[in-house]
């Protein structure tokens, strides 16, 4: 399904207001709360899509969640490193998979190599750190830092990343992979339901 | 003959190659490729189209190049060195082993001889080597002290014939590799103090290009090594990948050791000779 964020929240809200939603949650929650629960379900769905892609070695479905940003390259004088400020923290996925590509805006063939946050001490002391030409980058919080092989004069960087549901605007499109359309509603309802009340008579309180 | 044009007559007269377009075909793929080509090629085989593993895989490729330079296909570098007063030359930083050490005469390297009985002397004063090159009457004292490597000639008014009947290993100068100190020691007479060292290099530097025959061994090496230290991977998988690498190296050696028919005939005819007959 391809819809907007606003429409998806409205769909869930209407389903909760009537339809098959359990009585305990029917018409109770506000759109802001529904968005929070959708955010959690959406992140879970992204992870499950990644797992499926890893299993079948096909990540084309994960790419449906990718958003592209062109960001200014700034300079951190404390570290003497250049970086870009991300608009939001990416969805945490194994092996930094949320960052799909970082490259110059007009040269995707010259994409930068994405490395672990703590890998610099290792690569600096190996040949690849000295004789390699490709600029490497790593993520720290909401910043992506570059090494000193960043092309001279490059003012912007293009970042393709998987963003969480909460960072989308109301009019941004949301793609739900086939097979997950019903799942998203079910999971939202499950998360929003209150846990069943434990019958106190069943609890053993008397000491023998 | 008179019916031919002047151009055709000249071609026949001077046995020139046939007319026509002699340029190489356009658009041919380059035989020499950069190191990261191996990484991209392997990632394509693995259907991994991200750059997350690039640095790690490239380092594994570099390790593979160094491994193949040792055991599969050496990279020969040439170093024209000047010995210092102590008869010492510092080894180049990429030195692995030597193939020839000699002096340059008329376009050829005339090799010197190794003498591992030479005493290693690393003595320095204020970082200057103070070792003394050993010479006796102008000749190296290792081996026969009146032997000449070169053709017969006159010396001091006397005719000195070429050495006849002596075995090999005698020379005007000798060397010993001192790898621990990263230097070579020399004894004897070295003309102009200049030595030619052909050595096997690590073969890796900025902008290194590798030949096509190394691509498959490097791909199989990288595919094996990226999993070798992962304890979660089954032993059978690692063994299979190791065998693939061994097969690729076997093919590489076969490629390196092949020779053409003309090379074979040259080698064969070298041993043909005419001898005086009674």
Summarize the structure.
The complex is a heterodimer of chains A (208) and B (278). Chain A has helices spanning 5-17, 31-56, 120-124, 127-131, 181-192; strands at 2-4, 66-76, 81-85, 99-103, 113-114, 136-140, 143-146, 156-162, 173-175.
Secondary-structure blueprint:
The complex is a heterodimer of chains A (208) and B (278).
Chain A: E1 2-4, H1 5-17, H2 31-56, E2 66-76, E3 81-85, E4 99-103, E5 113-114, H3 120-124, H4 127-131, E6 136-140, E7 143-146, E8 156-162, E9 173-175, H5 181-192
Parallel strand pairs in A: 5-6
Antiparallel strand pairs in A: 1-9, 2-3, 2-8, 3-7, 4-8, 6-7
Helix pairs in contact in A: 1-2, 2-5
Chain B: H1 6-13, E1 32-34, H2 35-45, H3 54-71, E2 75-82, E3 88-90, E4 95-105, E5 108-111, E6 113-114, E7 124-125, E8 128-129, E9 153-155, E10 158-160, E11 173-178, E12 183-188, E13 194-201, E14 209-211, H4 215-228, H5 235-257, H6 261-270
Parallel strand pairs in B: 6-11
Antiparallel strand pairs in B: 1-14, 2-13, 3-12, 4-5, 4-13, 7-8, 9-10, 11-12
Helix pairs in contact in B: 2-3, 2-4, 3-4, 4-5
Question: What report would you give on this structure?
Answer:
The complex is a heterodimer of chains A (208) and B (278). With 208 residues, chain A is of the alpha+beta class. Helices cover 29% and strands 22% of the residues of chain A. In chain A, the strands form 2 sheets. Chain A has a 7-stranded mixed sheet with strand order 4-8-2-3-7-6-5, with no helix packed on it. Helix content of chain B is 30%, strand content 23%. In chain B, the strands form 5 sheets. A 4-stranded antiparallel sheet of chain B has the order 2-13-4-5, with no helix packed on it. Chain B has a 4-stranded mixed sheet with strand order 3-12-11-6, with no helix packed on it. About 4% of the residues of chain B have low confidence. In chain B, a hairpin with a 4-residue loop joins strand 11 and strand 12. The chains are: A alpha+beta (208), B alpha+beta (278). Chains A and B meet through strand 4, strand 5 and helix 4 of A and helix 3 of B.
